[in-house]
Amino acid sequence: LYAILLDWPTTEVAIRSLGQGRLKSARIDRVSLLSGGPLEFRHDSEALRLMLPEAGSRFVPSLRIDGSGLAP
């Protein structure tokens, strides 16, 4: 699964549509910043939460989210 953010965030990113409450059978194993490597994340009942490093380029960040049960 990929997520493309519309701007480079300066605070925590919370993707509510990927919270455990909405995706009960999903398991998120890894979140990576494309061209930037793996990111630390928390997957709680409300959202998938993560922090991005400072903006390294003028491009918007794209995330790769690996796990199981993420497809409808």
Describe the structure.
The structure is a single chain. This protein has 72 residues and is an all-beta fold. It has no helices and seven strands. The strands form two sheets. It has a four-stranded antiparallel beta sheet, with no helix packed on it. Strands 2-6-5 form a three-stranded antiparallel beta sheet, with no helix packed on it. It starts with a strand and ends with a strand.
Indicate the radius of gyration in whole angstroms.
12 Å
Which parts are unreliable, with pLDDT below 50 for 5 consecutive residues or more?
none
- The portion of residues assigned to helices is under 10%
Count of alpha and pi helical runs: 0
Biggest sheet: strand arrangement: 1-7-3-4
| Strand count | 7
SSE ordering: EEEEEEE
Record keyword descriptors for this entry.
7 strands; 4-stranded antiparallel β-sheet; 3-stranded antiparallel β-sheet; 72 residues; mainly beta
SSE order and pairing:
Elements: E1 2-4, E2 13-15, E3 27-33, E4 37-39, E5 41-43, E6 48-50, E7 62-68
Quick structural gist:
This protein is mainly β. The chain has strands spanning 2-4, 13-15, 27-33, 37-39, 41-43, 48-50, 62-68. Helix content is 0%, strand content 40%.
